[in-house]
Design goal:
Length: 320
């Protein structure tokens, strides 16, 4: 995987584009536009009016097609519907551009594998947008974990009209699947799951149990039909327990502490307040750094593909 050397008139800035400037893609464009080491060259969107509005806001050009835009850039964010990821990313991957694809990597395993193969065959850096990996709380939690034995994750919120064209596993649960896979460091041996469609034709609430080769277990719940918003992950390991509240950015830590002269150890407790960061800003900054240096991304294509494969198996177990 090689770094792309920025080109253009007397510039060492990375030339970047955004494909798809809907709700999330707009934020990609605006973040790139304020990065001093980046030139936001342009964007493409299926809605010409939307494209022009965001281009005016971000101070870049609108391109009519991917074929016109791809030769002009070193890196690109692909923020289109999941079913269009392969089509949108292919022209850039074939040119060896660094590509960031929003999660999940693709709608099917075959398309995800094709994206990974294109990146490999053309020496293109590929990052998948599992933005929660750049959550300050997740990073702080990972530093304190040794060998987890049981993980419980809850990602629950109220109903919104956005993203109801997909099921809750693809929309929300896949975040925690990716985090759990990164923390466990062991292969999955069994998956069971249940779920139900409540307010949409797709599954709106789901529960999955993941069993790992090292004997560890994870229980994952995702809902978009809950009265109360909950974003929490609990990790139990030998001698201790950690619980991350994504919303409050706090980590509760409990562990056994030896007490001199006591017959048994006591349970010590502390609450850690994590300095919050904006995960999307951190994710895009890391992508730009990888594109400039060739440093492997935190979430590469193979990692994104594995998260998708697990999510698809969960869906299959539910029957959706």
């Amino acid at each position: 995987m090689r770094a792309r050397a920025p080109a253009g008139p007397g510039s060492d800035r990375l030339r970047v584009a955004v494909v798809g400037v809907g709700y999330l893609g707009r934020f990609h464009a605006l973040i790139y536009a304020r990065m001093p080491e980046v030139t936001l060259v342009g964007l493409v969107d299926a809605d010409p009016q939307r494209a022009q509005a965001v281009a005016t806001e971000a101070g870049c050009a609108v391109y009519d097609s991917l074929a016109d835009l791809a030769p002009q850039v070193d890196a690109v964010s692909v923020v289109v519907p999941t079913t269009a990821h392969l089509q949108a990313a292919e022209p850039f991957l074939r040119r060896g551009c660094a590509v960031l694809i929003e999660k999940p990597i693709a709608a099917t395993q075959a398309e995800g594998a094709a994206i990974v193969a294109l990146a490999r065959d053309h020496g293109a850096l590929l990052q998948i947008g599992h933005v929660e990996r750049f959550n300050a709380g997740v990073m702080a939690l990972a530093q304190r974990i040794t060998v987890p034995r049981y993980i419980e994750a809850q990602r629950m919120g109220g109903f919104t009209e956005r993203a109801t064209d997909v099921d809750v596993v693809s929309d929300l649960m896949i975040h925690d699947i990716d985090i759990i896979l990164s923390l466990m460091g062991s292969e999955i041996t069994a998956i069971s799951a249940v779920g139900a469609a409540v307010l949409t034709p797709h599954v709106d609430i789901a529960n999955a149990r993941l069993e790992f080769a090292n004997g560890a277990v994870a229980n994952v719940v995702a809902s978009r039909v809950s009265d109360k918003q909950t974003r929490r992950i609990r990790v139990f390991q030998s001698g201790g327990y950690l619980s991350l509240d994504f919303i409050g950015q706090t980590i509760d830590h409990a562990w056994l502490r030896e007490v001199p002269g006591a017959a048994r150890p006591e349970i010590a407790r502390e609450r850690l307040q994590v300095d919050a960061v904006k995960p999307l800003d951190q994710e895009l900054a890391a992508f730009v750094a990888s594109a400039r240096t060739g440093r492997p991304p935190l979430v590469d294509g193979a990692i994104g593909l594995k998260a998708l494969e697990v999510a698809l198996e969960v869906r299959a177990r539910i029957g959706c």
